[in-house]
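>> Question from a student workshop board

For tomorrow's exercise we were told to take the sequence and the ligand below, predict the bound structure, and bring the output to class. My setup keeps failing. Could a helper post the expected result so I can at least see what it should look like? The ligand is flavin-adenine dinucleotide.
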Amino acid sequence: MTAPGPAGARQVRVAVVGGGLAGSLLALELAERGLAVVLIDAGSDGATALSYGGVAWWAGAPGPLGGLIRRAPAAWHRLEARHGPLGWRGCGLRLHGGGWATPLLRPPFAQVDSTVLMAALPGALAAAGVARRRARVVGPPRPGSGGWLLDLEPGPLLTVDQVVLAAGAGCRQLAPGLPERLRASWAGVLTLQDRSNLPRSPPSRWVRHAAACRIVQPRRWQRPALEGGAAALQEERWIVDAGFAPWGQGLLLGQSSLVRPGLAAGIPPAAAAMESHLRRGLAGLDPVLAALPGPFLQVPVAFCIGAVPLVGPVPGAAGLWVFSGFGGAFAQVPVLAPLLAAAITDGSELSTLARLGTLPG
Ligand SMILES: Cc1cc2nc3c(=O)[nH]c(=O)nc-3n(C[C@H](O)[C@H](O)[C@H](O)COP(=O)(O)OP(=O)(O)OC[C@H]3O[C@@H](n4cnc5c(N)ncnc54)[C@H](O)[C@@H]3O)c2cc1C
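>> Workshop helper replied:
Here is what the output should look like for this input. Compare the format with yours to find the bug.
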């Protein structure tokens, strides 16, 4: 269960379940603190790979978390200094809707290009000494042999000292007793592989913004209100926040969000219907963008009602941790991962996490 350390010292072995933004950045932080880390990922259905990756460090968050996320740009710079380019780029943000003054608002913005991030992470993790395993953890981790047992598919039983659930929308299945504020939605986007194919005629200012690698978003996002009201839903609800973001050489156009009553994301929504809702929403912004070919893809996204994520020990299960349910993950994860890694390593930042309100208990 334990691996020998550099000088023969006992090394704590931690399994991080989920290889998206949360699991990967946490694995890097744990490895930096000398723990033996294995990152287990099923290799499908991740939100990170389809994310706009916008880093709204100025947009606020409930309570003291708002102050912490202001450090997100510095945290990304530090990550890139240690692990090489991860996709950070300053980029323009243009807002639409919400009155005549909206076009005057040009908040500072940055993006972590999710295609660059996903391509860079395997090398960064390997260089940091993180072992990677392509497998699905089937069912909740079980206590045993002084640590935790994980059933993998494919693969034999894995025994480790500690487990971190960073599996996004998959966390609920692995720990059904997690607080009810952790939910999951379905997000849908049109994916375009090559921006150079954008039609130039008829002329459109939104296509010009897309060609200039700017992110375009509505002034008033509907998604936070949809998530905030999830506990009161009697039936499924969807909304469209029309906008787009550069994505490697291509473009992500979105985004539809569907939330169901209850704690689980459930099966993917009917793709044809959601694509049609999305295209209608985009047509309100620009019919040229609404007619782009796609394809349309959907992924489940974990969120927390109240926008404060779950970061900390799972109550009554020593050595089991959760890291999920972010609201603005690209600003929250890089500043919260070092705190959780410190708490796992020696308990040192548990009081900070308690002050931030992220503890699941
Ligand atoms: C279209 C879109 C736009 C977005 N825009 C922004 C934005 O601009 N800014 C922002 O901050 N956030 C944005 N988000 C949200 C953000 O992308 C997510 O909150 C974040 O990527 C979640 O990261 P994660 O690591 O927690 O989860 P995920 O990226 O979903 O990763 C979870 C991983 O766990 C794995 N997994 C699940 N269950 C198991 C299991 N049982 N065993 C093994 N592996 C498992 C999955 O395969 C997956 O790889 C956007 C999301 C979408 C979809």
